[in-house]
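Hi R.,

Here's the chain you asked about this morning:
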Amino acid sequence: MGKISEYIGSQFANPHGLVGFFCRRAINRQNKKMYEKIISLAGERSFQKILDIGYENDFMIKTLDKKFSPEIFGIAGKINFSQDKSSTLPFESEFFDAIFSVNSIYFWDDTLRALKEIHRCMKDGAVFYNAVYTREWMDSRSYTERGFKKFEPVELIVLGREAGFGKILVHEIIHRKSFVVEYRK
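And here is the predicted structure, written out as tokens:
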């Protein structure tokens, strides 16, 4: 992998500066079907408190605000825990009605632990929508060779069960390219 591909990959993880500005625009175009699918799945539910994980490009937050007018919280794309294993997300237990994430799970340092924390922060009956690209599609992009964890639906189902989610559904967005995992508490 060349330095340019590696730099572009790092911008997808944490867009910043002038290049980050253009990456955010590209991300929004590339992820449009994911955003639309999540909003469609959310339907006409009423969400009072929403967490958006990976909010750097703010497209999802603006869309959620227009649709639901909730209290919205955001966390940058990476969910990192300190090595002492005592870290938690900075929210009370059973706090959120809905949690959304589009293409941020690739950058979480401990995926299972992050999912357990997301589960802890969700109210009973809450939903977590996690949109991702397939491993196959990600492997076709040179910029994902380093720094990206890649998943297939079955892996995210297994992790979700281990994290304590009671109902897990997978919704295809684009065949062999992208999907949403719907985790329910």
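One quick note: The chain has a mean pLDDT of 84.

Cheers,
M.
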